[in-house]
Amino acid sequence: MRSVTVSAVVCCLVFAFFAGCKQNQPPATPTLSGPATGVPAKSLVYTFSTTDPENQRIAYLVSWGDESEEEWDEGYASGEEVTRAHKFTDSGAYCVKVKARDTKLAETGWSDSILVTVAFWPPNQPDQPTGPAACTTGIAYTFKTKTIHPLGDSVWFQFDWGDTVGDWGGPVASDSVYSEEHVFDTAGTYSVMARAKDASDRTSSWSNPLAVSVIFVVAPDRPAVVYEPLDRGAKLHLTWGTVADAEHYEIKVDDSVRTITDTTYDVTKPCATLEVRAVKGSRKSAPAVIPVGIVETASIVLFGISDPDTSHHHAFGFDTAGTVTTYALYGSEPKLDFYADDLAHTDSMFLVNAGKPGWNTKGNALKDAGTTVYDDAKLADTTGYADENLLVVDRVYYLWLDRTDNGYSADDNYAKAKILQVSGPLVTMQLGYQRVGGLRWLRK
What we know:
Layout: H1 2-19, E1 31-33, E2 37-38, E3 44-49, E4 59-63, E5 82-86, E6 92-101, E7 114-118, E8 134-136, E9 140-145, E10 155-160, E11 169-172, E12 178-183, E13 188-197, E14 210-215, E15 225-230, E16 235-240, E17 248-253, E18 256-260, E19 264-267, E20 274-280, E21 283-284, E22 288-289, E23 295-303, E24 315-318, E25 324-327, E26 338-341, E27 350-353, E28 365-368, E29 388-390, E30 396-401, E31 413-423, E32 426-433
């Protein structure tokens, strides 16, 4: 009876002891993230983590799915995010997974795996191009496409327009829109496709085609433009006859375009390019180009008349096209516009109208433009000119070519000169000449 009592007491003590002890639990199954594509020998980075119920340090074992052998690492804090890089040496498909264990060696099962496909990836097939399905010949239309590179690399695009294959254009970022213009010259139906390549010249397949129907529309004739200076050459007045079938006209002044229905237009500020087109629907005529841009001469060299070398030229003259020629003082007198004089004024160089000493009958004149910046001299002055002027290095001068010596008229031309160098009897200058008679514009 006593032994039964002792056994019962012992059983109670043993039960109480084990009831007060908590059994060690393994960490939670790890979570794993990282790329599902890659190229051979390029590092791919994967991230994983888990937590332990007892907050023990956690070690990880990664299976890369290839022949590499991994060992348990030294361990990380519970909940700490771990990154690991790996290079797959060959193309193929690999199953990446990870498991964890705590400091008492209680292990988890394997995480969900990532199937990694390793290859030399080209860009994906581009989207079917977008753009107008109906076009007319001779007009530039914009077409767009895009694609994704599996590795996120930048891509280049090439269009097959159906009538020609374009050049490669780009690069643009993966999954970014690429656009390009094209002009169809012949009526017909064309299949427009695009393909892409990366920096390693890995090329995608061609996209699905976009069918484009192109019709031919006759462009209107080019306007026959007549022009004349106004306000003593500060403005230019344009007129032209009505062009058959033209709906309106485009005036392009440098980079600005204005649409009008009149057949006359006044340009009030100096410009370098000036064009007029007739427009019918989407078709435009060839441009009527008014030659308002100055004719540039980078440099000429003159010698003052004190220089006795007969092979040296002391004067220059413009022809009607704006070409500059240098001359000796004698034998070409009618062609001379200005000459360099370092005799009449001691220790200085002057530019002088060739008509002043009677070598011809020209009434040419010049004046300091008040600037050292060649491009800032855009509109020649109307007053303050003299038949000679002291030349100072870096200064810009306006030249008034009054070859008939009758005051201002539409027969005159204007030019500008920048003095690049004066060294002893030698003078070097840059020149710009306005071909349009009577116009004072000197824009490059």
